[in-house]
Amino acid sequence: MPELEEDGKVRVIDDFSASSVNQSFESHSHLVQQDTVLRGAWSPEMLHSPPLLAKTIDLKKAYKQVAVKPSSWRHAVLGYPDKKDGWTFAVSRSLPFGATASVYAFNKLALALLHIMVVKFHAMATDFYDDYTVFEFKPAASLLDKDGKKFVPFASQVVTLGVVLNLEDIWKGRITVANKPGRVNKICSMLAPLAEGKPATRSQLASLHGLLNFAGGHVLGFQLKPAVRMFSKALARGRTFGDELRAAALLALDVLKAARPRTLVARVTPPMILYTDGAYESGVATWGAILLDPLCGARWMFHGTVGSALCNYWRVHAGEPIICEVEAFAVALVLYGLRGVLRGRCITSYIDIDAARYGFIRRTSPSLCMSNIICLVTLLEAILETSLWYERVPSKSNPSDLPSRGALEEAVKRFGVLDKGDVAVSEHVLSMLVSKTYDPRLADAVAKAVRCEADLMAELCQ
Description:
Blueprint: E1 2-4, E2 10-12, H1 21-24, E3 52-58, E4 77-81, E5 87-91, H2 100-120, E6 124-128, E7 131-137, H3 138-141, E8 157-160, E9 163-166, E10 174-179, H4 183-195, H5 202-220, H6 225-237, H7 243-258, E11 262-265, E12 272-281, E13 284-293, E14 298-305, H8 308-318, H9 323-337, E15 346-351, H10 354-362, H11 368-384, E16 387-392, H12 401-404, H13 408-415, E17 418-419, H14 427-433, H15 440-461
Parallel strand pairs: 12-15, 14-17, 15-16
Antiparallel strand pairs: 1-2, 3-7, 4-5, 6-7, 8-9, 9-10, 10-11, 12-13, 13-14
Helix pairs in contact: 4-5, 4-7, 5-6, 6-7, 7-11, 7-15, 9-10, 9-11, 11-15, 14-15
């Protein structure tokens, strides 16, 4: 199956999933991914902060250079119908592109090559599949430059397997990471017809699923996961068009448009700690939250009552009880309410109901009400460049249980928190939470308002 890539290169993929070869493969030998710590004497040249440059060495036809063991040839037979109503068969004697076993086999060889580069030749390098990113400071970089397509010169920006690393501010303790030019545009052009409600082939959906997984996992985090889950469900059900696919495409487009290149800092910033809880008694839904920020010492408490219109919507579409929605709503409220101070922060969020926690972790839910909340949180994460990690806390150990039940004075006294009261939300946010399908106009209105306030606060704090 030929696939046209961004640079016009045609890559031939052998579909070993169609014949169930990939499904029958299992490996008990896994590589342990780890960082490489390089130690050595500090050169006096480093006192002048020379620019750090990098280049990517891409192995030419990497899979084709690795032979298949003769006893495994019977598992690498490719067949196709010919013009004479018969079949022609071919045996792949090098690693086929598209087989799961090829990935495991090649990664072991790739790691061995990296070991030789680092230990034998003292290179500052890392690898990802067949891409080897080599780092060197400017005074010595010219000694290692070569000519040729695969030997690009050292530069302050390097593209390694679809990811762009910007090293210009390395001495300021910052590295910027982004998807390579053309990748996001390609994904958006593939999503556009689906967003208009047009049908797609299973091959196109599978390709989109892989591209979104790769683009999101390496640069954005988990913000594209809801769309990826929707595409995965559509593929499993054999659907190639419909409202679910359209909503997935619209959400992915909004996340991609809202996302910016990520800046990684050298300092270790402690994560914020967020406890949230909800209560639903006698038809009234209340929520509470306690936020701890070790960086500035803030200890804030939030609490409020969920509006009757939102509760009625949840009762109609999710059924009683609605405690799961209330718990998830508390997380979304705090993120929205603190949009001005969360830029680039990591947050550990503690939730005491597994249904809500699993929904955020998997970025999907069979419930429309929960899906709307997850989409809102996903959008906020993308705009604020925030990363959340979800953990469970037993109900009896959850400090936010007190504000969720109105025990405000006790919470202030026991935990030394500052009562910040309720969180006001805009009409666009509420409309997004009660929408029967993903509405890009509402998402755009929320995104613009949140980004404007986050950018303003970032400028004021500089």
